[in-house]
Design goal:
twelve-stranded antiparallel sheet, 12 helices, about 575 residues, alpha+beta
């Protein structure tokens, strides 16, 4: 058990404050490079702890969550009796147990069946209670255009569950994987303040965490044990002699080849059916996506082989530098942490989400003096590839600037999001400070607009997040009819893809991406003799009556071609 199986340092009267926590350089690795080493090391130290690893790049302000105090994992409910009733989901709530004398391996798990709205209300009530009960003096009160995580919920909400809630009568299929995950991360790693390199362990274990079964000494043991694990990893990564043979590099990872589900002809047929709906007036725009699939197979039954999506994270992030990249790992769908083997890779229920997203969904900010919440969203609609030379690159960028079709698509989504935010914003506060800006990424140029609003005083940011999913930029408009057509034409669940990943601090500030350029890995077979894990990647674009099939198909390739090459090690 994490809190009692290891020797710890001398205890103090209370858990260490963020300011007094030690820091580590971890071999000066970037966050993306550190994540595989960190996950593997902590699992080697204690396989039975309720680890739920999460990383958010957060537009250059990274956060690494390790061991949530409470987490909610949401799954489809096979026992749904009637389509006339609200959709009910299986929600597994896991709580970290810090009782030194406990024998239940650091977690207590309960299962409830509740609606999407009931889960949302539970999260809001929990967040409000945490804001009241916890000290907030650690929050950086300096105004900044780039918000940071300082204590709250981190995780993702998938596309499927949001689309089903938007159109419950359509019975949109849910993928066989977690529909959503949110965790209260009161223990996490964040970059050292005012330093070029280094990481600090932050913890917010306060009097509000102490119950009849826990005390300050127990919390100290938890933090000191985790600190000892991180000390050991820091030493290993700083030792050049140990660093090379002990830790995986991209050259040691098995190439992962993903194949398209659709041929060019399949895409043409789906495109033509999309055009039929557009011509009939069902929608003005429909976001049609296609899927690439492959599998991570264990080689020679070796648990150290490349069986985990996280091993590809360093190379993928180096290639994309995606501002809203992220990773999350979830184990099991029944709360059973007692039956784990010696490796996370052997867990057939292990689910991974790895995003190289360039797109911001929402940034929530809170004014220190007034407590007012504001929101900013930056939808992407309009894409051109990067050029092979500076001249060609500039030409492609100018073509995007001049594209009437892309501008029309972009303004449709801007109007949709203005309408979404209008339900939660103060009258007259919805603004569009920037239209049709061009932002350049490693493989494409994108057309991006910005929308801002001030939230009504009685509106919780989590309600805005839940109520605005799925994002308009990856559905189309009108949104409800678009998700229904998407379910018909794509005929396979998207899972988390086109959902959102991010964090919401307990004070209502936060930041969420749109899960594009995103891979998912989950169980393909539970056969012990043939354990494989299915990997999926999608790409798509907004289709209008003015769209050209060949151009839209090529746009899909432009969006994920670099990711496919990195995975296959063809770069």
């Amino acid at each position: 058990m994490l809190v009692s199986n290891h020797n710890t340092t001398e205890q103090t009267d209370s858990a260490p404050s963020p300011a007094s926590t030690p820091s580590w350089r971890f071999g000066d690795l970037s966050a993306a490079e550190l994540m595989p080493q960190l996950q593997r090391h902590l699992l080697d130290q204690d396989i039975e702890a309720n680890w739920q690893f999460v990383w958010l790049n957060n537009d250059g302000r990274p956060i690494i969550g390790l061991l949530p105090k409470v987490s909610w994992s949401v799954y489809s409910n096979d026992k749904q009796a009637s389509s006339d009733l609200p959709n009910i989901y299986k929600v597994i709530k896991s709580c970290r147990d810090t009782d030194v004398n406990s024998d239940n391996n650091n977690y207590a798990s309960t299962t409830a069946y509740m609606s999407y709205l009931e889960w949302q209300e539970e999260l809001i009530a929990y967040s409000n209670a945490q804001e009241v009960n916890h000290d907030t003096s650690y929050i950086n009160n300096e105004e900044s255009p780039k918000p940071s995580y300082h204590h709250g919920l981190i995780g993702f909400i998938g596309y499927d569950i949001a689309a089903l809630e938007l159109s419950p009568a359509d019975r949109i299929e849910l993928a066989n994987q977690p529909c959503a995950l949110l965790g209260h991360y009161d223990i996490y790693l964040t970059p050292t303040t005012h330093a070029d390199t280094g990481w600090t362990l932050k913890s917010h274990l306060t009097d509000a965490d102490v119950s009849e079964n826990t005390d300050h000494e127990t919390n100290d043991i938890l933090i000191n044990t985790l600190t000892s694990y991180l000390d050991e990893l820091d030493q290993k990564l700083s030792d050049k002699h140990l660093n090379q043979p002990q830790f995986k590099d991209v050259s040691d990872i098995t190439p992962l080849v993903l194949s398209p589900r659709w041929s060019k002809l399949d895409y043409q047929q789906a495109f033509n059916r999309t055009q039929d709906y557009l011509q009939q007036g069902d929608c003005y725009q429909i976001n049609l996506t296609q899927k690439w699939s492959g599998s991570l197979a264990r080689e020679n039954n070796d648990v150290q082989s490349a069986f985990s999506l996280i091993d590809y994270l360093p190379a993928l992030y180096r290639n994309t530098k995606a501002p809203f990249a992220g990773y999350v790992s979830v184990d099991g769908n029944d709360g059973d942490y007692l039956n784990r083997s010696s490796s996370i890779d052997a867990d057939s229920n292990h689910f991974e989400l790895l995003s190289c997203s360039p797109e911001l969904f929402f940034t929530f900010t809170r004014e220190i003096d007034t407590g007012k919440h504001s929101i900013r969203t930056k939808p992407i609609k309009g894409t051109m590839p990067r050029g092979g030379t500076n001249e060609q690159d500039d030409l492609y960028k100018q073509q995007l600037v001049n594209s009437e079709k892309d501008r029309a698509e972009n303004v449709m989504i801007v109007d949709l999001l203005r309408n979404d935010l209008g339900k939660y914003a103060k009258i007259g506060s919805v603004k569009v400070p920037q239209l049709f800006a061009i932002e350049s990424f490693s493989n494409v140029h994108h057309m991006v607009s910005t929308i801002t609003a001030e939230l009504k005083a009685d509106t919780h940011p989590l309600a805005v997040l839940f109520g605005s999913l799925p994002a308009g930029s990856i559905t189309g408009t009108p949104k409800k009819r678009a998700v229904e057509i998407i379910a018909e034409l794509e005929s396979t669940p998207r899972g988390a893809y086109c959902g959102t990943m991010g964090y919401m601090n307990f004070d209502g500030s936060g930041q969420w991406n749109v899960l594009i350029r995103t891979l998912q890995a989950n169980a393909l077979s539970n056969d012990d003799c043939n354990k494989e894990r299915h990997v999926n990647l999608w790409a798509g674009g907004g289709i209008t009556v003015a769209s050209d099939c060949d151009a839209e198909y090529q746009e899909c390739l432009d969006k994920v071609g670099n990711l496919l090459s990195v995975l296959a090690q063809n770069m």
